């Protein structure tokens, strides 16, 4: 076999890497071909020392030779607890080089969301949404890629990247087709678990080609490398021993050959036996011994550098190692000569505050692990103080504080709490969780202990509702959490139970806490929350007199504070669900507003009451034919969450209800687009949650209205739109929608059974609004042939309830149902009455359907043409086809 040499000027670690280098070159060429080129992603995997860093250096050389902008970053084993560490390395230098106004202009609306995570903007006053921050960082790359095209991002040692960076990297990987960026990632196999492993799997799945696993050098390549380093006279037996000692590891081979040169060992077979001892001095115990030979000061310097991990400046290391500046400079030179530390390599493109870095991550790890445990802990404590004194803040010091042994230090608890607040403000709840969990081990003093638990629950609320539940229960079980903070904790606990699909327990929790309070604002707030959760419960656990108690309490409310406004909204929603008069429902909701707008403290991003209450308000307007008000609220929610960077469940719900508004209005194409976006966002949050049901149910309902039955069935199958149903109310009623779907696909018996189940569930809850729970009209149509008597009875009941509710939409839909069960002139008269009501309704799809049904019954071409135009405008393809078919059949002139 011939020796495979690297390209001229490339690192020795590139021997036998021709295929990998060629893949890089092809990817760079594709990127540079056109500004509209789609992005690319390459992932290289290999054990330590197999040349991953050298391959990235070669990628930089190739890319810069073609005129690319290249930014790079590296994960660090001791830095994984530092949120956004790696993505800051990548993007921060370019943004810091801009004027503040220029950076704000480039990031646009994302500046206030992604800027704090990147360290170029101060965080806002509330907890940032992690998914929103992730999306903001993806948007930052998209915008910077247009400015810096062609842009190449290099990430080394991704297995040691912080979790927040990996979250961003996974999101970026899935969106690279939208931007002209090449991303090249290297990592070791294994090494990570949990969320970080899932993110790296997502990155691997999005790569342009299967992940490339780097292999060790062959004996022939090792021989070539040996002769290139030591001279062509190195004999074959010596070269074979180099390969045997290093197992073909390029890094270890290069290091061993450097030691051979330094020791002036002759590369001949007779001296080959000395190679193994030389190699041992490069790692583990051999490295420790080599450090000791350099003296105690140099050892302390190396230890301090390993503790810092990043930003290794001689001055900072001197403070940590308690060395004078001249001693520190001497030690730095000794460690450079010993190939333990080195000046940062300009070819990597990484910039930072440090004067030094370790020659290789393997050495950094070995040095760090060589520090005696007790001393390492003490040095982390000193490092935390030094970092704080340097003005870097509690969050920067936190990674050191996490390593300090618990010692009943209330000051340390305070520092960790402050660090957690900083982490939450930039969208790193997992980092905040680590700080607060460490604070609990200190432990906190009794007076602060429940507050630390409460803050920990805030950190886990968006990502781990089950964990939040146990933390809040523990906090509430301790003395000291009183007043408004206790009420907030009870509310948060009930919200976490709701999100964990434990709504009955949420109801009991709030009810018990309200019962122990004296009359006043706090008790009224919890009473309102209690009624809210009961109102959302889809089971049969509510007390029979709930509506009466709520009505009695709301009757005394004038809307003077948010607790009273909440009770008015809840009473309005309850009346809506029971099908009471729509005018009275709207009047109750109007009283909950201030000058027609949401009151201060009741905004979409305010946390005192949560999103559920405001959705009740908006939905009450939507289903009482006040669509203008409903759509204003839905769109306000969408804007508020997008502006605040909330890209998780809240934004998913906002898109779902914007879609519901479009569906009610009859804009079916717009509804479908909004609901699909909602479902995309909901997928990231998790299936089977209430928000997931809302998106799926409304999408199926919209597709059925469009006449896309097969597509509706496919969505239902893909997203699990089938029993068992959630414990929370979903609008419109999912049983009714699934029953209609089953009828549409020809499963009549199953459809009837599902609608009868909807009837039973609605009766148990007293939900008699035929618009929200429309099972009866569909069941009447399904039974028209098989059981006409029951069908007629159902139609009469639908009309009675619709007239009680009193909206044009409800009455018009009831008349449509009645007309469908009749023939001859009676069918014509009922269809005409349905059209008359629905002409005054804001629901254009229902109006179009009534117009076409009247045109068919009356054989009126005029009405069929008008209905056809309306159906086309709505995007109701099935209705439009029905109208065309009727016209072809020869309807009269009208």
From TrEMBL:
UniProt KW Amino-acid biosynthesis keyword: no
Limits of the Orc1-like AAA ATPase domain: 16-184
The entry's keywords: ATP-binding, Nucleotide-binding
Protein's UniProt name: AAA family ATPase
